[in-house]
């Protein structure tokens, strides 16, 4: 069910990987192996979400692309995109997928 819910995002042009993870960093779903979603990196994303309590979405522009984090009640979402990706389209699709995911719970 998670895979079906995340398929529109995974299939969006420029998306390298999609990861769903819990507050403790336990990965629930990983579309692809990618350095941005390795277990050690999850603790960094959690720290970033913890530091920015007022924002439900964080965007990190990195050397090899962009990582967008979404805070959820139960699960958080990390989306790694290539450098020339249409981030507006990715954000719209990610928000729909993330909302659908949390409406299932």
Structure overview:
By secondary structure, this protein is α+β, with helices and mostly antiparallel strands. 38% of the residues lie in helices and 28% in strands. The protein contains three helices and five strands, in the order αββαβββα. A five-stranded antiparallel sheet has the order 2-1-5-4-3, with helices on both faces. The radius of gyration is 12 Å and the shape is globular. The protein starts with a helix and ends with a helix. The relative contact order is 0.22.
Sequence of secondary-structure elements: HEEHEEEH
Output mean pLDDT: 89
- H/I helix tally: 3
User: For the CA atoms, what is the radius of gyration?
Assistant: 12 Å
How far apart, in Å, are the first and last alpha carbons? 12 Å
Strand order, main sheet: write it out. 2-1-5-4-3
Query: What percent of the residues sit in helical stretches (DSSP H or I)?
Result: 25-40%
Q: Could you give a short account of the major beta sheet?
A: 5 strands, antiparallel
Uncertain regions spanning at least 5 consecutive residues: none
Beta-strand content estimate: 25-35%
The total count of strands amounts to 5
Global geometry: globular
Structural class: alpha+beta
């Amino acid at each position: 069910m998670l895979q079906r819910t995340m398929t529109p995002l995974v299939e969006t042009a420029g998306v390298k990987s999609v990861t769903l993870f819990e507050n403790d960093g336990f990965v629930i779903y990983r579309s692809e192996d990618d350095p941005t979603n390795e277990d050690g990196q999850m603790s960094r994303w959690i720290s970033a979400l913890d530091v920015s309590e007022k924002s439900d979405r964080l965007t990190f522009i990195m050397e090899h692309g962009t990582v967008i984090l979404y805070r959820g009640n139960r699960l958080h979402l990390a989306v790694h995109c290539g450098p020339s990706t249409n981030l507006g389209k990715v954000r719209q699709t990610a928000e729909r997928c993330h909302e659908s995911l949390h409406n299932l719970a």
